[in-house]
Amino acid sequence: MSQARRDIIEEHGSDMLPDSLKEGAQLQEEDDTPAGEGPLWQRLAAARLGDVPGVRILGVVILALALLLGAFQLYIGITFSLDARQQRLTHLLLILALIFLMVPASKKPWGRSRLMLGVDLLAVLAAVVVSIYPIVNARALAQRAGAYETTDWVLGLVMTLLLLEATRRTVGWFMSVLVLAFMFYAWAGPWFPGDFRHRGVTIERLSSYVYLGNDGILGLTLGVVVTFVFIFVLFGALLQKTGGGNFFIGLAFVLTGRSPGGPAKGAVVGSALMGSVSGTAIGNVATTGPFTIPMMKKVGYKPNEAAGVEAAASTGGQILPPIMGAGAFLMAERTGIPYAEIVKVSIIPALMYFATVYLFVDIKARKRGISGMSRDMLPKFGEVMKHGWHFLAPLVLLVVLLLQYVPPGRAGLFATAALLVVAMLRAGSRLSLQDLLEVFVIAARNTLPVSAACAIAGVIIGVVGLTGLGLVISDTLVTAFAGSLLLTLLMVALASLILGVGLPVTASYVVLIILAGPALEQLGLAVIVTHLIVYWYSQDSNVTPPVALAAFVAAGIAGAKPMRSAVSAWIFAKGLYFIPLMMAYSALLLTGPATQVVIAAVTGMIALVGVAMAIEGYLFRRTTVIERVLLAIAAVMVMIAPEWDGWSQALFGFSPGSQAFVWGGTAVCVALIALQFIGRGRHGQAPSEARGELSTSTA
Description:
Elements: H1 3-11, H2 19-24, H3 40-49, H4 55-79, H5 84-102, H6 114-136, H7 138-143, H8 150-170, H9 173-187, H10 203-212, H11 220-242, H12 244-256, H13 262-278, H14 281-299, H15 303-315, H16 326-335, H17 339-368, E1 372-373, H18 381-388, H19 392-403, H20 408-424, H21 433-467, H22 469-480, H23 485-499, H24 505-515, H25 517-522, H26 527-538, H27 549-558, H28 562-572, H29 575-585, H30 594-616, H31 625-639, H32 641-652, H33 658-678, E2 693-694
Parallel strand pairs: 1-2
Helix pairs in contact: 3-4, 4-5, 4-11, 4-21, 5-6, 5-21, 6-8, 8-9, 8-10, 8-21, 9-21, 10-21, 11-16, 11-20, 11-21, 12-13, 12-18, 13-14, 13-15, 13-17, 14-15, 14-27, 15-27, 15-28, 16-26, 17-29, 17-30, 19-20, 21-24, 24-26, 26-29, 27-28, 30-31, 30-33, 31-33, 32-33
């Protein structure tokens, strides 16, 4: 067990977890913190270099850079005294230095050698030069904007190469290759056919544009990380270190533990609570999974099912307010819509998503006869609240500030300060000096892939701006699908799946919204609807094979096969695909009167129940083939009712109105659900349902 995890379990919040959860916790060192003793920064240095002379010096350097990054972010969050370009360049300098010092070039021995460390030190030096140059020469660069000199574009090329390598180390080779493909398209424009042909962009112009322009590396995408994201990453790191995660896990098990499949439902609720303030799927799995997954296995879930539930639930953390993923902050900046408005319209769909995951878990438990946990295995509600109620205060403060339209960065800063104060006032969550230093190291480490991805995404944005590629793809999509919104949505979902093979959520969202967003808006969707649909589809990289990052982390904890876990997660997370359809075709995102919103939410939830029954073939008893087909058709009628109305007009010359299909599909789903309830004990088809509780001895 790693020292950091031991601290979390034994020192912070242990009173909120029963012994059965602590003893059963399986820990994934690779996806949490490096094994070994000593402070986190020293373990990171040892993981980078091994047990060699000088490793302690490297550890101190990592700590110093992490503290410098944290102090810088807090400084600009409090004073706002630097202009945007200086903020982003300084942030990028510290991020690049940390990446090249912390993340080896390869997992093979040569990537961790001292010789490679020497090369990485040269890369750090190069990062210093390319980051300081625009700050020192800001006035001269402004005077010759558009007529850059050789030094300008050469340093821009160096910056791009550094970011490509940093992205390869932290995100993966796929994104680096994708960026190179976009750069090739910009350079080789005259060779492309049809509408994709353009004059071509020289390396000199492209390099200087993405390096010094307002829409490149130093553009809005990186700016959002600097302004908003880091503060919330720091908030999540502080919550993790003080034991707030244990409070949410304990509270979730109190609420759901005794019902059928209790541990899995606890994973759903716990991940929802933790994910709503962490905004990261993989971090959520690493935090809650070691407790929830072993308990799910203990009561009867297969390892891949336990991993799938945890991955699907943790993925929902990036769509559940108040702290959604980094893409939500990007959305607010790109659209000009206040973050508070995005939070408001996201609440109903996010709750529907978790309700769907919860429903799949419940069906699986009833179908397999998985019972709940016994009373003595669960924490007591009073004890959990006694030891952890203070963690609610910063969250309430955060929600109130966001709803009062306080800028997200400032709101996150206040909430982080409040969390530190309330944690230090109580012995169970009080941090030592080492703990506090580790909070900054954790925050810096968790920021690296986000910052690298958002910075290199600026190159793609620059290429799109120089070549007009976004408009070309938008017109192509609209023309190819004859203006069909449904086909365009399906194509966006497919593109998201393909991009999700190698891109993290935030990067996938940025690329998709640039390329496909205009097409959806051209087909009549509101700006916020378009962005949220693309953002939801971008989440599938966490749970969809062949690359499902959150599912793979969960599989490591569960001891399950990664691909089987990914398939299970994909099934449990079906709401990621169906709910965006409702966003497009109904008032689910508060795009209509209150009555329409209520109708959309209620009928949509009934349709999701129908989908779950059709997929699992069970609710209270087994469903027949005919019932499953009818449920699937009825659910789709509700989700895309306007399309059905259009098909009716085209085929029969009769338009009953989309509401007729909404209510018709809802009625069929309700009728079949009622038949399930009435016949739940008949035909001898149902396995023995969960009766009673799982005793401690059988657990």
